[in-house]
């Protein structure tokens, strides 16, 4: 994935930070202000590493269905908000010891971080597969303490800097800038290097070491400074005495909450766009988050400098204009990414546009602190309240946008609605910039009119949005999508020829006809070759339903449990007669859930056959179904002699992992059948079974069709091959396969396989 634009933006923003630190030293003349800012910059590194790793670890326990994702993210953010509140109270109670307490918080996070994954794994033994209510409780309990420690740091350091500079806006801006930029760098390094090379446990250890260094230096410096006489900046008294609060604290908190709601809504919307454009690659989210955070960092500092010396009314007007601009720009971002994809540009070529939009939003928080918080002994506590409101708004935004807007309105309408909401927020700020309702100037009215017109006029640019995002330059050949299902779980698009694209990735075809095999449905019919009499079957991942339709019509299968994470597939299946009967088949039981979570929640369920047409090994969260940890879980649910049959997508690591967990294996093209019992291959019985195979009463290998003989002859040749000389073709015994692929890395939950490798998902479409 081309990340050069993101790297360039990060370096540019880092240059601004270096310049800001120099100016800060010149203006305050105080010792240590630069050190405090640098420490807070490096404090941002581990915070984002923890967020990425802890969320993934908890997703393994509680599932990656939308409910679990929203709960884990909300629990993380709620902890930050409560920590901010606690930090504000501590800063007021101990105004001279803020740096010492900051150091203690960092050391506490380091200690918790080192043991965090062990605690999560211990908790998994007792809570995995829990219902939604318990998932909320356990996620909060597991994340509450470390996230509160993280959230407490900003108010503590704001209090410290305000004492030396006497300027709340400047103090909040430089600290927010530094910490957010540190987090942006962490996201970039996670996407490009850290998670790929260190895995989850190594990344957490690295983060804890950073916390340890930051905490130790901060504690040492704070203890040294607390023993010295307090230095007073000559500007401080003047700044405090002339501080003007242009907005009541409650109003500032309301605006901060609304800005947080919009910001997280944008993030969810943008992630869906980039997930589709990147073929659901894990680094896409980290690179987006890096761009988003670096934009917020730059915006927070740049606008504070631009409004330096301005009146509170002028600052409030700037806030309103920034929100108007963010709303107008945001509406054009999804079509921009689609157009760049169609023109065959690198996905992250759109990074500057995301950077600018995030920067406009990033200006709101420090500017609100500037006009609503006086530079007095309560500055840290008041900043913490605005910060808390911002975080609570962001938490609400993730829930409302992720659960409701994306489910009911889809990407286009959600993008326009969020743009309009940002425009409305900006308009309200302009109307009440003086503290009471006033008719805005002609210039402001023109700005409002232009912003809303821009948002509404963006609608036509969304034409064939999903076709362009998913297929890029091939969109002209593919044409418009025949069907699109959007919901909170993602986007499913179907082309005119029945090709299914789930989250921008090939997910099969609507086809059960072996005589017109455009989806290699042969692999489903091959079940009878090595598994003669499976009676109870589990299918993880329904997709088009084609595999399920073939499998449930096996003569010996008595029941099939199907676990599918996205209910949108059921809507599509109902519209395709070749598979629609699956939904009313009395032998079929469909559950909407995460496959791994469902197995953990049903330890009593055991099967003769577990079937998974798993997606590509490089896809985001693919290791949840490909790791040795998951395969051992499946193994616990297999009856004696039971078989796991799943798609290895031509990955040698996936096949090596399967043969590491199970004693016996057979490769069928890019599929792998594994078991702890030897396979008995009976070609003649299988061919006879195929000749009698019926789906909905229709004979699938009709002897009257001249193509039937040709197809069955080809099937027989494949059954006889078992040579495995060419990866992805023929049938191959497990022992021969093990020799051919040699020693490979075993995929685990910790190393996450190839999810973070440099793979271009678009090449696999």
Tell me the layout of helices and strands:
Layout lengths: L3 H25 L4 H30 L3 H28 L4 H30 L4 H20 L1 H13 L2 H59 L9 H7 L6 H29 L4 H25 L5 H19 L2 H10 L8 H12 L1 H9 L6 H30 L1 H22 L10 H16 L7 H7 L3 H4 L4 E5 L2 E5 L4 E4 L2 E5 L12 H4 L1 H4 L5 E5 L5 H7 L6 E6 L3 H6 L3 H4 L7 E5 L2 H7 L5 E6 L10 H4 L1 H9 L1 E10 L4 H10 L2 E5 L2 E5 L7 H9 L2 E2 L2 E2 L6 H16 L9 E3 H8 L24
Parallel strand pairs: 5-6, 5-8, 6-7, 8-9
Antiparallel strand pairs: 1-2, 2-3, 3-4, 9-11, 10-11, 10-14, 12-13
Helix pairs in contact: 1-7, 1-10, 2-3, 2-4, 2-7, 3-5, 3-6, 3-15, 4-5, 4-6, 4-7, 6-7, 6-15, 7-10, 7-14, 9-10, 9-12, 9-14, 9-15, 9-16, 9-18, 10-13, 10-14, 11-13, 11-14, 11-16, 11-17, 12-18, 14-15, 15-16, 16-17, 28-31
Tell me about this structure:
This protein is an alpha/beta fold and about 775 residues long. It is about 65% helix and about 10% strand. It contains 31 helices and 14 strands. The strands form three sheets. It has an eight-stranded mixed sheet. A hairpin with a 2-residue loop joins strand 10 and strand 11 (about 670-675). The two termini are about 15 Å apart. The relative contact order is 0.09. Residues about 230-245 and about 725 have low confidence and may be disordered.
Descriptors:
31 helices, alpha/beta, eight-stranded mixed sheet, single chain, 14 strands, 765 residues, four-stranded antiparallel sheet
């Amino acid at each position: 994935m081309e990340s050069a634009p993101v790297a360039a933006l990060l370096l540019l923003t880092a240059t601004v930070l270096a310049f800001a630190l120099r100016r800060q030293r010149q203006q305050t003349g105080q010792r240590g202000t630069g050190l405090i800012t640098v420490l807070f910059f490096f404090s941002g590194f581990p915070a984002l590493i923890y967020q990425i790793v802890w969320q993934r670890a908890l997703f393994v326990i509680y599932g990656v269905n939308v409910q679990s994702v929203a709960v884990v993210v909300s629990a993380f953010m709620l902890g930050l908000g409560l920590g901010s509140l606690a930090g504000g109270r501590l800063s007021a109670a101990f105004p001279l010891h803020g740096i010492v307490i900051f150091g203690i918080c960092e050391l506490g996070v380091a200690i918790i971080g080192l043991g965090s994954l062990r605690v999560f794994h211990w908790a998994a033994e007792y809570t995995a597969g829990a219902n939604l209510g318990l998932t909320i409780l356990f996620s909060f309990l597991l994340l509450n303490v470390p996230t509160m420690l993280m959230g407490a740091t900003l108010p503590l350091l704001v209090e410290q800097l305000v004492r030396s500079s006497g300027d709340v806006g400047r103090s909040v801006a430089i600290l927010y800038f530094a910490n957010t930029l540190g987090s942006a760098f962490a996201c970039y390094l996670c996407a490009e290097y850290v998670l790929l090379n260190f895995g989850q446990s190594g990344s957490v250890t690295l983060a804890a070491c950073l916390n340890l260094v930051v905490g130790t230096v901060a504690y040492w410096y704070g203890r040294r400074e607390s023993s010295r006489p307090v230095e007073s900046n000559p500007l401080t008294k003047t700044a405090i005495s002339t501080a003007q609060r242009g907005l009541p604290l409650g109003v500032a908190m309301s605006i901060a909450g609304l800005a947080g709601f919009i910001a997280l809504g944008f993030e969810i919307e943008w992630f869906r766009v980039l997930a589709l454009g990147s073929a659901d690659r894990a680094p896409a989210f980290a690179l987006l988050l890096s761009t988003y955070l670096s934009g917020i960092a730059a915006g927070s500092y740049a606008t504070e400098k631009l409004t330096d010396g301005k009146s509170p009314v002028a600052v409030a007007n700037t806030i309103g204009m920034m929100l108007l601009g963010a709303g107008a720009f945001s509406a054009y971002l999804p079509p921009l990414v689609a157009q760049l994809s169609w023109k065959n540009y690198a996905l992250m070529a759109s990074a500057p546009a995301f950077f600018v939009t995030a920067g406009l939003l990033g200006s709101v928080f420090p500017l609100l602190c500037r006009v609503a918080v006086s530079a007095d002994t309560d500055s840290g506590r008041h900043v913490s309240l605005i910060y808390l409101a911002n975080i609570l708004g962001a938490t609400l935004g993730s829930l409302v946008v992720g659960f409701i807007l994306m489910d009911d309105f889809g990407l286009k309408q959600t993008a326009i609605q969020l743009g309009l909401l940002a425009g409305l927020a900006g308009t309200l700020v302009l109307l009440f910039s003086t503290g009471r309702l006033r008719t805005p100037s002609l210039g402001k009215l023109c700005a409002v009119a232009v912003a809303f017109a821009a948002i509404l006029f963006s609608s036509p640019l969304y034409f064939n949005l999903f076709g362009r995002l998913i297929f890029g330059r091939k969109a002209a050949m593919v044409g418009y999508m025949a069907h699109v299902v959007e919901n909170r779980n993602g986007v499913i698009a179907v082309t005119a020829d029945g090709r299914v694209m789930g989250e921008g990735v090939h997910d099969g075809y609507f086809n059960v006809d072996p005589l017109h095999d455009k989806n290699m449905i042969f692999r489903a019919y091959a079940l009878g070759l090595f598994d003669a009499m499976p009676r109870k079957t589990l299918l993880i991942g329904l997709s088009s339903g084609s595999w399920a339709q073939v499998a449930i019509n096996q003569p010996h299968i008595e029941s099939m449990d199907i676990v599918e994470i996205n209910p949108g597939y059921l809507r599509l299946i109902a519209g395709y007669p070749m598979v629609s009967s699956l939904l009313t088949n009395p032998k079929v039981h469909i559950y909407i859930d995460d496959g791994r979570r469902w197995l953990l929640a049903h330890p009593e369920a055991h099967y003769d056959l577990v079937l998974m047409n798993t997606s590509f090994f490089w896809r985001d969260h693919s290791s949840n179904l490909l790791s040795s940890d998951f395969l051992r879980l499946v193994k616990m649910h297999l009856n004696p002699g039971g078989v796991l049959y799943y798609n290895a997508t031509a990955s040698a690591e996936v096949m090596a992992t399967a043969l590491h967990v199970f004693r016996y294996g057979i490769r069928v093209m890019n599929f792998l059948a594994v078991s702890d019992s030897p396979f008995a291959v009976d070609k003649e019985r299988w061919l006879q079974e195929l000749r009698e195979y019926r789906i909905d009463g229709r004979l699938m290998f009709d002897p009257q069709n001249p193509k039937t003989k040709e197809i069955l002859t080809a099937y027989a040749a494949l059954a006889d091959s078992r040579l495995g000389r060419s990866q992805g073709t023929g049938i191959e015994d497990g022992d021969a396969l093990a020799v051919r692929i040699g020693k490979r890395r075993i995929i685990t939950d910790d190393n996450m396989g190839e999810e973070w490798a440099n793979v271009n998902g678009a090449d696999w479409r």
